[in-house]
Amino acid sequence: MLKLPTHPRIAHMLLAAADNKTGVHERTLAADIAALMEERDPLPKEAGADLSLRVEALRKWRSGERVMLSEAH
């Protein structure tokens, strides 16, 4: 865990997701959550604290879909 430049809890999540027993979906979700927790919030404050909205917006952006931040909440 010390080799990952992140908070120990996030490092633990990433290492647990990297286990061969998890699927691609779980590894991708762990990486998305780590990115969202470590970086500046991509949504406006009015969006609240729901992490699932941020994961959804990130996945839409990654797939090339236009993300309207005002519609995210």
Count the strands?
A: 0
What structural class do you assign from the helix and strand content?
mainly alpha
Gross geometry: globular
Give the overall average pLDDT: 88
Question: Can you give the helix content as a percent range?
Answer: 40-55%
Number of helices: 3
- Order of helical and strand elements: HHH
Quaternary structure classification = single chain
Instruction: Give Rg in angstroms.
Output: 14 Å
**Terminus-to-terminus distance:** 34 Å
**Major sheet details:** none
Low-confidence stretches: none
Strand content: under 5%
List strands and helices in order, with pairings.
Elements: H1 8-17, H2 24-38, H3 51-62
Helix pairs in contact: 1-2, 2-3
Give your account of this protein's structure.
This protein is mainly alpha-helical. The protein is 51% helix and 0% strand. It has 3 helices and no strands.
